[in-house]
Structures are given as structure tokens and as C-alpha cells.
Amino acid sequence: MLLSRAKAVLPSTVSQSSAVNQVPELSDLLLKRDYSGSVALLQHLKRIGKENNDYELWTAFALFHSGHYSSAQEIYERHNDLASLAVCLFFLGRYSEAKRAAERADRSSALVRRLFLHLSLKTKEAEVGLLEQQMTDSVEDQLSVAAVHFVGAHYQEAIDIYKRLLSESRELLALNVFVALCYYKLDYYDVSQEVLALYVQRFADSVLAVNLKACNLYRLYNGKTAEQELTSLIDRLPPNFEFAKDLLRHNLVVFRGGDGALQVLPSLVDVLPEAKLNLVIYHLKNDDLRSAETLMKDVEPINPNEYVLKGVVSALVAQRDGSKHSLKEAQQYLQMVGGSASECDTISGRQCMASCFFLMKQFEDVLLYLSSIKSYFYNDDTFNLNFAQAKAATGQFRDAEDAFAAVRSSRVSSDIVMVQWIARCYIMNGKPLNAWKLCESSDSVSLLTIVANDCYKMGHFLVAAKAFDSLQRIDGSAEHWEGKRGSIAGLLQMACADKADKEDVAEALRLVRGGGGKGAPSGQTSQLINAMKNWSSKTSSNEKQIE
């Protein structure tokens, strides 16, 4: 929990008559964190006429802790408990109203002071650092400071506070969950699991702890293992644990690779910040850039995940619209993550820097960062694709061909951009026929153009002639005829130097005779045919001439 609310909502006194028969029983329920049971007991006391203001405030306390903030808010309004009312409004996401209530409350209250700190993170209307300096050394204040560090992705600073508090008060076992959560955010999933075990052994029914354990299993192993951990927890949840149910439903969508995303995530966008980000990821994976762009439009990034998604969406928008502004935004967002002190040495931070340099076309730097994390992405198709493109862009075509071959997904490998890069690698590695096979199974004009020009440049003249011939048949361009004629002339020169076979010249002759097209002047066609036949006659004294 971000705030300590116990002292603010507990009534100061309980009547002597009720203390003997009722308070111990209520205390037992509260110690067991059975807030729904506490509410039921208090409602029973009201029915039998034994309620008073103290009992109503206890009801508000139990309602709040069971997640029924609106119901608790109504009680605090009746009792003019402005501090507790402000906290309820804060948890309902009504930050402006929470601020107004807090401003009317006792400003010297420790609870109100902490509330203003958390409101500053949400509304950005006050300087967080100045409010942080007002915090004392009390456990509650220090927990709020740690929460500020956590929200700002300063996880190590938060860990330092939690560990210091634990060293002073070993009975604060729940802090182990917070420490484990910080390690999870730092990608130290095994360490997180080890720290978390201390708490789970004592409180096996803790929603936060078991959910975090499942998330660690998801990162360390797979979604199926993580899902099994959550399934047993869901079956044990009390019926009024709506927030917990929302959290678990959200995570099950993630564990199942996005299955059910459109049914679950939209209703949680305003409840769980992660729901919006995961819905954006779902839309991106399904090529729905417009929906992703709409969701991210008003997001002012605070944590690394938000910066990364902002950068990815901006990069895709730049690619779609040719927008230099969006491209610059993408570079800035990604560089802010990759260059930050908290992320620069993490895997995701290095990915961000690699992506930033990729957009800037500084491929040597791309390889520097990708090579440092390559062992973590051995079977990752997207990583292998980006690594291969960077290798090819720096002229390392043999390595690039191997990296392209590591891509297993048919969806990725059939993308025309990847096909074009593979064709270029084949050509540069002396395998022009492999590149031509790609053309035969594709109707892409851009692929034909790359193969035609790259083969011509590398002296693979027959394949170049075939590619130019196909382009000439498509639009009859004189430029393509000139390319084909130049390729065949180059092939004939190689034949004269005994570097080309007669079969290749014969195939080239068939291209000239059968291609033609609007861009082929008849005089030039005849000259080319005669040149090839003359070469054939000089080299075929004992063999049949090519016809």
C-alpha cells in the first residue's frame, strides 16, 4: 500500500460495554485481515441496535481496506473526516477532489502530509522533491518516500529504504514483498523469488505476494507455469476482492500471450496503469497502430515502460507517415531510457539504445549494444531480425545471412523487408541464384529492383538480366531495357574471358528474343543478338552454335 491509513481511520475510543463483548471479536477479524467479515459483524451490530459512531467508523475502515472506497467515502463525508475522505478520493482516482479535501483537513497531520506527496506524483502540480524533504524518519513517511522512488523507477533507492526499515524492525515482514517487487522491476527474477519466499511461507493467501510469485515464474519459465500459480489463488479469493480479481484477470491475459485481451483489458485501462500499456502492446502485435496511437496519445511517460512504448509507437508513426518529428520523438524517448542511470546496464536499457541508434542509422553502435545482450535472445525472432539487418547494413553479409536463418517465425520471415535483406545477402555472398528463387516466389517489384541492381553491381549478370527482364515485362520501361542490355553485355564480356558458360549466353539470348517490350529498340535488340551469335560461332567450331 502506498499510504499508511490505520491511525487516521481507527476511532480513538470504544465504549466500555461494547469493548467486553464486541471489540475483541472485531479485533480478531481485523488481525486476520478479514475485512468482509468485519463489515458483516458491524452490520449485524447495527441490526440489533448496538451501533454508534465508533462502529460506523470501524465500518468505513473495513470497507476501505476491502476496496469499497465509495462506500467508505460516504461514511467519512457524514463524519466530516476530511483526511480519510481525501484518501478515499485518492484511491478512486479523483485527484482534484482529493486535493481539495486534503487542503481543508489539518495540514499538520502526518497522513495529510504524505497524501500531498502522492498527489504531487499524480497531478504534477507540486515539486515532489520539496515535499519529500518534509518527510520524517517514521516508518510511514519513509514508506511513502520509497513509493516515490518506486514510481520514478529508482528501484535501488527504494530497496535501500526497505532494507534499512527491515534491519530496524524485523517484524515488518511485508517489506520483503516490496523488496521482491523492486528486484522484479530490475529484472532480477531469481533474487525476487528468493526474497519473496520469506513472506509467502507465512502468508500463503496474500494476493500481492502470490501474484508477484506468478510474475516471476512467468519471466523465469513460461506463462503456463505462472497461470497455475494464479488459478489456485483465484479459487480462494473472497467475493468482494474486486481489485485483486481485476489484477489477476489482467495478468492471466499476459500469461496467455494476449488471449482475451480485448475482453478484459479495455475495462481495466482506468484501473490498472499496466492494462493500458499491455493493450497497446496487444494492438501493436496485431498491426493495429491506430488503436495503439490513440491509447498512447495522452500518456505523459513517467516510468521506463511508458517511455519505451511511446518511443515504439512514435517510430511506427514515423515509418507510416514519413514524419521527421515522430522519428525525432522516438529517438528521444528511447535514448532517455537507454541513457538513464537506472536502466543503462539493464537488458531493456541496452535494447533501447540499440533501437535509438538503429533509427539514427548508426549501425556499428547498434551492433555494440545488441552483441552485449545476444545470449539472452538466442531464439528471439525479432532480435535476430534486427541483429541481421545491422550486420548487413555494416557489410557483414555472411554473419547477416546466418542471423536471418535463425528467424523461425513464418510471419516475420515472409515480411518483404526481411526477404529483400536476405536477397541482398545472397547476392553479396555469391549466391545470386538463391536470390532469384526469392523473386520467383514473390510478386514484389521492389525485390526485383534490388536483385537487378545488386546483381549488376556484383557482376552476377545473368540473374541481373533476368530481373531486369521481369521488370521490363511489368512496365516496358526503357530504363529496364538498358539495365537488361547492360547485364547481357557484361555476361558476354565474361564469356569472352572464359568466365561464363555457353548455356548462360544461350539463356540470355532467349531473354532478348522473348522479352522485347516497349522499351527495347529493335536495332539494339538485333545488335545484341548478333553479338552473342558471333561469339558463339567463334567458340563453337566443333559444337553446334547457339540459335
Structure explained in plain terms:
It is a single chain. The termini are far apart. The chain has helices at residues 6-9, 16-21, 23-31, 35-47, 53-65, 69-78, 82-91, 95-104, 110-123, 128-133, 139-151, 155-168, 175-185, 189-200, 207-220, 223-236, 242-255, 261-264, 273-285, 289-296, 304-321, 324-338, 347-359, 363-373, 381-393, 397-405, 410-413, 416-428, 432-440, 445-458, 461-475, 478-496, 502-515, 522-539. The longest helix is centred in the last third of the chain and has 19 residues, at 478-496. Among the domains are: 1-133, Alpha Horseshoe (Serine Threonine Protein Phosphatase 5, Tetratricopeptide repeat); 152-248, Serine Threonine Protein Phosphatase 5, Tetratricopeptide repeat (Alpha Horseshoe). Helix 16 packs antiparallel against helix 17. It is built from 34 helices and no strands. It has 547 residues and is mainly alpha-helical.
Number of helices: 34
In percent, how much strand structure appears in the residues?
Answer: under 5%
CATH superfamily of the domain at 1-133: Tetratricopeptide repeat domain
CATH architecture annotation of the domain at 1-133: Alpha Horseshoe
What is the averaged pLDDT score? 86
Percentage of residues assigned to helices: over 70%
Structural class of the secondary structure composition? mainly alpha
Top CATH class of the domain at 1-133? Mainly Alpha
Q: Name the shape in a single word.
A: elongated
Tell me the number of strands. 0
Instruction: Report on the biggest sheet.
Output: none
Q: What is the straight-line distance between the termini?
A: 87 Å
**Unreliable parts:** 1-24
CATH topology of the domain at 1-133: Serine Threonine Protein Phosphatase 5, Tetratricopeptide repeat
Any idea what the radius of gyration is? 34 Å
